[in-house]
From TrEMBL:
GO terms for biological process: amino acid biosynthetic process; aromatic amino acid family biosynthetic process; chorismate biosynthetic process. This is 3-phosphoshikimate 1-carboxyvinyltransferase. The gene is aroA. Phosphoenolpyruvate binds at K29, G102, R130, Q177, R359, R404. Catalyzes the transfer of the enolpyruvyl moiety of phosphoenolpyruvate (PEP) to the 5-hydroxyl of shikimate-3-phosphate (S3P) to produce enolpyruvyl shikimate-3-phosphate and inorganic phosphate. Belongs to the EPSP synthase family. It is found in: Cytoplasm.
């Protein structure tokens, strides 16, 4: 499973003829993690179809198995999970290896905080740089204790408390991971756990907790803040889940189709939860021809098919209030901006500095390396668009173990004069197995 033991896998992406065809993308990463975790807490068998079989989600599966859940995949690709019940997780015998996955780490820290057990979390070089203080703080207030590496980082050992103490917590950063960690902790304690989010973030945890039968209420204040209240000592019922395609993965072929002249591509079965759909809106504002067809609901989540045609894009200055609804999509949005007519100014992106890499610095360096004029800001970036002219190209782009950096510059290569070389494509397996072959089926040469 660990992609980071073998040698770096460089790859060059070159100018593509018009892309065409209909594709689907792998299952949603956020929903896949939560499917495994909640199923592992329900007594009886849950069934998950369309689970993302990427390294991040497999890290969650391995951890849930290590704590007692029975998880298997059948020959038709359906996952079957027999859970242990809320409060029934067992002490893992060895350290939990989270690989590259911040979501696995933070959500599992929440889940374990209200269990009477000790666990050690380890991860790769990227994950070991990421801040865990944002979950350590509220989970400590609930009674868990932590011995973390300097700066609140991995490797980290935690001890949960049972019964733990419910809290009411106002999120200081707009983070669905922090929100979810607190709610998952709240499942196994008496009383009501409350999270107040001033800026809405992805709400998959709320939708799925309700779907599994938890008592969860959401109130919206006049200023738009959301107050989420979960009643503890929950009993979760097993579910049958269909995971929609990941909009964060669809983002790459979507932008590729917009910037490779003459393209027309359909991406089927894409999750369009409004807390995730910010990129579609942004690209439409930039003049992108992106149409949603067949809107429908699958397993409590809005889903649709996207039809995308190559378009002349205009620069934008997106409202920072939109950041949480496309927090993972900025690297590829920057590639769209680099191809647009005019300047784009992105602000309010401080969270990008603590993702799998410092995505502001790494994107600025990569864009410069392929001939784009940019200015890095503390909280964002200014990009001078090339008005549809091909990107000069170059590389190798340093991806710093960040899947979304690798895929963003791969897409840039398709609209480049001289090709773009990526230093290492291995991290793509964390979220988008089959990414490069999928581009090839659309007509790209890689
Ligand atoms: C995620 C939330 C986001 C996102 C991550 C997945 C989740 O992180 O970047 O890829 O599944 O809850 P933050 O909530 O910390 O912004």
């Amino acid at each position: 499973m660990n992609a980071h033991n073998d040698q770096p896998r460089p790859m060059t992406f070159t100018a593509a003829p018009a892309l065409s065809g209909a594709i689907g993308v792998p299952g949603d990463k956020s929903i896949s993690h939560r499917s495994l975790m909640l199923s592992a807490l329900a007594v009886g068998e849950s069934r998950v179809e369309g689970l993302l079989e990427g390294e991040d989600v497999l890290a969650t599966a391995a951890a849930m198995r290590a704590m007692g859940a029975d998880i298997m995949r059948d020959d038709d690709g359906i996952w079957h999970i027999h859970g242990v019940g809320v409060g029934g997780l067992m002490q893992p015998a060895t350290a939990l290896d989270m690989g590259n996955s911040g979501t696995s780490t933070r959500l599992l820290m929440g889940l374990l905080a209200s269990h009477d057990l000790t666990a050690t979390f380890i991860g790769d070089a990227s994950l070991s740089k990421r801040p865990m203080g944002r979950v350590i703080e509220p989970l400590s207030a609930m009674g868990a204790s932590f011995a973390a590496s300097p700066g609140g980082r991995l490797p980290l050992t935690m001890r949960g408390l049972c019964p733990a103490v419910p809290i009411s917590y106002r999120l200081p950063v707009a983070s669905a991971q922090v929100k979810s960690a607190i709610l998952l902790a709240g499942l196994n304690m008496p009383g009501q756990t409350q999270v107040i989010e001033p800026v809405p973030t992805r709400d998959h945890s709320e939708r799925m907790l309700r779907g599994f039968g938890a008592d969860l209420e959401v109130a919206v204040e006049a200023d738009g803040a959301r107050i989420i209240t979960l009643t503890g000592e929950a009993e979760l019922r097993p579910q049958s889940i269909v995971v929609p395609g990941d909009p964060s993965s669809a983002a790459f072929p979507m932008v590729a189709a917009l910037i490779v002249p003459g393209s027309r591509v359909t991406i089927t079965n894409v999750g369009l939860n409004p807390t995730r759909a910010g990129l579609v809106e942004l690209l439409q504002e930039m003049g992108g021809d992106v149409t949603v067809i067949n809107p429908r609901e699958v397993g409590g989540e809005p889903v649709g098919d996207l039809v995308i045609a190559a378009s002349a894009l205009r620069g934008v200055d997106p409202d920072p209030a939109r950041v949480p609804s496309m927090v993972d999509e900025f690297p590829i949005a920057f590639i769209a901006a680099a191809m647009a007519q005019g300047r784009s100014t992105f602000r309010g992106l401080e969270e990008l500095r603590v993702k799998e890499s410092d995505r502001i610095a790494v994107m600025a360096a990569g864009l410069r390396a392929i001939g784009v004029v940019v200015e890095e800001l503390d909280d964002g970036i200014i990009i001078e668009g090339r008005g549809g002219d091909p990107l000069p190209g170059g590389g190798p782009i340093a991806t710093h173990l960040d899947h979304r950096i690798a895929m963003s510059f791969a897409v840039a290569g398709l609209a480049s004069r001289n090709g773009v070389t990526i230093d290492d494509m291995r991290p793509v397996a964390t979220s988008f197995p089959g990414f490069a072959p999928l581009l090839t089926t659309l007509g790209a040469t890689g």
